[in-house]
């Protein structure tokens, strides 16, 4: 974590006088230079030093989390932004079957937010780093007129054990963890300004997603999953990616999908949420028929549901309750995108 | 490298139709999944997999490079932005005495720039990755109304060999590589709209800085440097940081400073550039008196200059030619910051 952004920025704009404040607050995270976490050096030098464990590969992943693109400052509580910027990046480590180790935080914020907003952001980030076992190792801070967050997560997985998207074979069974479409449902309620309790499960899933680290790691360690990825952009889109990477197709049964709780919504609407809703950070994985019995109904209190099978034919089919089949179209993005804002 | 930003973005804004284009262009970098570079997996999965070498520590560093903060799109050629976003992050690896291995690119650009601008950006980035031996391993792309770049570099250094900022001792000699203030001088010419050849050394140093990888690595390997950092924010500021980290002070001789070529500038102005100008990405390092003879006048065609000594007294002193001493004030930031834009 540098104490100041690079010189060029200081030439071109007046630097944030409050940057020292930001750094001081980040220092209080207290995980820098903790050898027990493999971090020999963090804040205050040119770079962080991380000791990889022998016999492990390093997992590298990063995510943008930008104001007005990925969150709305007027709608999303600052502590949820802190939690979620780390959780969503860590979810990619879970999807490889790995364990997160540390992260770098690149943060650009308006000077006016270095007080209460930053404090609340850090409360959420601190909770996430403890819960996920992924500790701040360094980063870069500067100022900006909107909040810009970029998180890089470094994880590890035993050499050769990572589960890729490309390993699915025809006749493999397709599973998902948890419920699908719940986060999307929470987002809709948030945007609709409906009065909802913060304990509402759908809202909580949207604001404080839980990456499925234990499940991903268990599936990888036991080699039960032939392919795996996290569901960030919605089942229809992400399943298409997994199938493309594996050169296969899939057949999904609508009646098997673990739907979000309906409330007053129509079944058709709830099904659409489950098929196309994003931000769930559940795991999508495939299992060979021989390993089928190894997959329990619940793992670490998270439901595991077989929703269909991989097919040799490279199409995505959705089978409805009556037995009728239709092609599953990726995302339904257009209808989802328009209107929300 | 994900093929799309996370779902939330697709809910909140209409995604760039041109993002597929960006990814295709990045794929042509061709370094993904190259086992000879320790990259087993890059684009197209949830994360990249990197194989750390046994006996080495991993260096992690990241840098913002933002339009209007760190560069001006109307002034800085796109290929220089591509080169520099990687070079400046790699410079932190050089400053630890390490070797870069791979990088993650987080890129957010306006859809209108996905054509010629992006092509030129990638020309510079590709040149930098080859020259610096630091290859694209993954990243995240999204759209934004301004160009936002964040680069995370992963490097390596033999365990225990990293040179920190904190090792300087009283009586150690202070060295710098290259010339100081040259990049700042190039920036000034660029901003002043003066007609200058792109071959102008000061302009080239501003647009295409060369991190001192061979020098840093040689100093670390032979344990000649007791402390080291890169000069990104100007000597007066960066030397203060090194001294703070080492709990020491320093005495610098003005007459020894390797100044930029003067042109028609006053000597006083040139001295100020050398003391406070940023963006040089030269190395600042300290050497114990016993190792003094090991440091050549030039290393890999780069001049090495002893500019002063570390002192027990924790102040920064600048000694002028006549012998008069004054306190070296950090950065002269205010005078530098105002007026340029």
Question: Explain this structure to me?
Answer:
2 copies of one chain form a homodimer. With 341 residues, chain A is an alpha+beta fold. Chain A folds into 2 domains: 7-158, 60s Ribosomal Protein L30, Chain: A (2-Layer Sandwich), CATH 3.30.1330.10; 165-337, Phosphoribosyl-aminoimidazole Synthetase, Chain A, domain 2, CATH 3.90.650. Chain A is 30% helix and 26% strand. Chain A has 10 helices and 14 strands. The first copy, chain A, has helices at residues 7-12, 19-27, 78-95, 116-132, 182-191, 201-207, 213-221, 235-246, 267-276, 333-337, and strands at 39-41, 48-50, 56-66, 99-109, 135-143, 148-158, 173-177, 225-231, 249-253, 282-287, 298-299, 302-311, 316-319, 325-327. In chain A, strands 7, 8, 9, 10, 11, 12, 13 and 14 form an 8-stranded mixed sheet that branches. The first copy, chain A, has a 4-stranded mixed sheet with strand order 3-6-4-5. In chain A, a hairpin with a 5-residue loop joins strand 13 and strand 14 (325-327). Chain A starts with 6 loop residues before the first helix and ends with a helix. The relative contact order of chain A is 0.15. Mean pLDDT of chain A is 86; it is low at 2-17 and 332-341. Chains A and B meet through helix 1, strand 2, strand 3, helix 3 and strand 4 of A and helix 1, strand 2, strand 3, helix 3 and strand 4 of B.
What does this entry show, briefly?
The structure is a homodimer of 341-residue chains. The first copy, chain A, contains ten helices and 14 strands.
What keywords describe this structure?
homodimer, 341 residues, alpha+beta, 60s Ribosomal Protein L30, Chain: A, Phosphoribosyl-aminoimidazole Synthetase, Chain A, domain 2, 26% strand
């Amino acid at each position: 974590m540098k104490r100041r952004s690079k010189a060029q920025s200081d030439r071109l704009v007046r630097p944030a006088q409050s940057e020292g404040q930001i750094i001081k607050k980040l220092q209080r995270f207290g995980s820098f230079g903790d050898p027990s976490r493999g971090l020999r050096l963090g804040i205050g030098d040119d770079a962080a030093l991380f000791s990889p464990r022998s016999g492990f590969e390093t997992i590298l992943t990063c995510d943008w989390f930008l104001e007005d693109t990925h969150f709305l400052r007027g709608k999303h509580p600052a502590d949820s932004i802190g939690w979620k910027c780390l959780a969503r990046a860590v979810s990619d480590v879970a999807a490889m079957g790995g364990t997160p180790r540390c992260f770098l935080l690149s943060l650009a914020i308006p000077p006016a937010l270095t007080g209460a907003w930053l404090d609340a952001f850090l409360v959420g980030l601190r909770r996430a780093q403890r819960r996920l076992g992924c500790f701040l190792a360094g980063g870069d801070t500067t100022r900006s007129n909107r909040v810009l967050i970029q998180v890089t997560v470094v994880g590890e997985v035993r050499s050769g054990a990572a589960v890729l998207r490309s390993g699915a074979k025809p006749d493999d069974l397709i599973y998902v963890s948890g419920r699908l479409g719940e986060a999307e449902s929470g987002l809709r309620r948030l945007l609709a300004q409906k009065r909802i309790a913060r304990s509402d499960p759908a809202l909580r899933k949207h604001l404080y997603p839980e990456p499925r680290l234990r499940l991903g790691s268990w599936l990888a360690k036991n080699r039960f999953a032939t392919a795996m990825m996290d569901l960030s952009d919605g089942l229809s889109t992400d399943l298409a990616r997994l199938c493309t990477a594996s050169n296969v197709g899939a057949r999904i049964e609508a009646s098997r999908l673990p739907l979000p709780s309906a409330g007053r919504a129509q079944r058709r609407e709830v099904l659409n949420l489950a098929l196309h809703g994003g931000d769930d950070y559940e795991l999508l994985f495939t299992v060979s028929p021989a390993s089928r019995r190894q997959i329990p109904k619940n793992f670490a209190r998270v439901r595991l549901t077989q929703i269909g099978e991989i097919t040799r034919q490279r199409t995505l089919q959705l089978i409805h309750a009556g037995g009728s089949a239709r092609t599953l179209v990726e995302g339904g993005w257009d209808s989802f995108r328009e209107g929300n804002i």
